[in-house]
Amino acid sequence: MKITPMTGLAGMPVGDKPSLRVILCSPRGFCAGVVRAIDSVERALALYGPPVYVRHEIVHNRYVVDSLKLKGAIFVEELDEIPDTDAPVVFSAHGVPKSVPEDARDRHFITLDATCPLVTKVHREAEIHFRRGREVLLIGHSGHPEVVGTMGQLPPGAISLIETPEGARTFVPKDPDNLAYVTQTTLSIEDAAGIVTILKERFPAIVGPHKDDICYATTNRQEAVKRVAPLVDAMVVVGAPNSSNSQRLKEVALRAGCPYAELVQRATDLDWEKLGAIKSLGVTAGASAPEVLVEEVLDAFAQRYTLAVETMAAADESVFFPLPRPLRSEAAE
User: Fold this and answer.
1) Helix, strand, coil shares of the chain as percentages rounded to 5?
2) pTM of the model
3) Structure confidence at residue 191 (pLDDT)
4) Catalytic residue chosen out of the listed positions 42, 125, 135, 146
5) Is there a single domain that holds both residue 259 and residue 283?
């Protein structure tokens, strides 16, 4: 859907619908890691034919997952749900513990690793710290697939999870002079920075990443929301409830001064009782939400309002990640 700004007087209704100023956050939606993961499944389907098995949701978005199911992808949570097969098995963008590819090799599966390269970076950092004899701390959310995957890179007990500032204040290390930390890639920038500050104050010798682990896409989308949030009456974040980066966008909007923010998967989730009286709206999307769902939300508002749409940009993104090597055209040929 293409929307052009209304030409009537600003703030005046056009026809029988009230006017609504809409500010689209940019960047929003798919990041390079998500594009790579989805393309990996689609390329595998093209090369091998269906079915293609995918361990865990390839990205946290029901629309994307359902679309891939229709093309022949079968999603499982664990490898033991997959029968003996010659069909390929794709690991999701969130990464997996080392035990998963080991089990896949034992079962002679064809495996394709669609882990985001920025998550792989965190895995490698954790391994390097461990090899150098450091106790490793992971700042992240318990149970998130990325955290499970990162903790699973090292032997049990080698990584301690820090979820909150209180956890950072009370953590008792084996050796306070021999610590390192890594972070989940989709955290709130401010939340992570607060925890890191506490750790550095308590343990001045702690070693961190050379470059921040929070990924460029998370950073850019949060920055765009910070710019838009103080200017609007409400913020709609398109994304899944189990998407960490989407949840953080909602939190960032509220923290940045937006009176009301909600996370929706589809336009049918919009709470019109709370949104009905607004005169300005911000719209963004988590890194695993396709633009078609943003357009769906805008269509829903266009049914009730005359929209004047503008875009506020925080960064230009040109990041590209190549497909896993077995799926690249030259390798396939």
Assistant:
1) 40, 20, 40
2) 0.90
3) 94
4) 146
5) yes
